[in-house]
Amino acid sequence: MRKTLRLGIMGGTFDPIHFGHLVTAEEALVQFNLDKVVFMPTGRPVRKTHRYVSSPEDRYLMTVIATAANPDFEVSRIEIDRPGATYTVDTMLQLREIHGPRAELFFISGADAVREILTWKDAARFAELCTFIAATRPGFDSALEPFEAVGDAAVAPRVEAMEVPALAISSSDIRARVAARRPIRYLLPEAVAAYIEKNGLYREPVA
Ligand code: ATP
Ligand code: MG
User: Is residue 118, in this structure, part of any structural domain at all?
Assistant: First the structure.
């Protein structure tokens, strides 16, 4: 029988993608023996309506540019191409359908994001569909507090902690740096920085 596919999913706005995301995906790939990591840029994020978000196509292209050299990384258009608001649980259901019941899904995110996700619409369903890999900063909350069952779920969500060294990098800091004409070099792949420059992204200061 075909061996189980261990699939990592790294969802995000990726506005822009940076070394924090890439280091986290690579670490998850190795620590959890994943077959590949699929980067999943969000379409129209339901929760980031308070600020201007770059076009899905710009965010998709930056993610492709950043991951192109890694044979274990892929970028999916599932959320970008879905009309209407993005709900990650729908994406997980779709991945489950595409890959079948033998696939094991691992949702990779920052530790804080896991707590937030578990307050989302259909959190219980989401938790049943995948194991969470929660990135933490070395020396900080590496022992995650236990998670309790959410909604009408029978079991508590499976959450695995993973320490990554590049947690202080964030997209919002990079955007603020571009607007303030401060350097972003060494925070993200050079080709992504070049894309930002070429297309004039983040020049205007935004919240
Ligand atoms: P913003 O600053 O706009 O919130 P971000 O840097 O957090 O952006 P997102 O696209 O929102 O980037 O994050 C996608 C996923 O990557 C989330 O699960 C988030 O927790 C995680 N993440 C973001 N930055 C890091 C980092 N430096 N190290 C590890 N995980 C990260
Ligand atoms: Mg964030």
Answer: yes
pLDDT (tens digit per residue) in 138-175: 766 555 666 776 666 667 789 999 999 877 899 999 99
Does residue 189 fall inside a structural domain? no
Q: Identify whether 188 is part of a domain.
A: no
**C-alpha to C-alpha distance for 23 and 21, rounded to whole angstroms:** 6
94 lines ligand 1 (CB under 6 A): no
> Is residue 187 domain-resident?
no
What is the C-alpha to C-alpha distance for residues 166 and 170, in angstroms, rounded to an integer?
A: 9
Nearest by Cα to 172 from 50, 81, 57: 50
Q: What total of structural domains would you count in the chain? A: 1
Single pTM value for the model = 0.91
Task: Residue 80: give the domain boundaries.
Answer: 6-169
Ligand 1 center to 55 CA (angstroms): 18
Mutation test residue for ligand 1: of 17, 24, 59, the one with most atoms within 8 Å of CB: 24
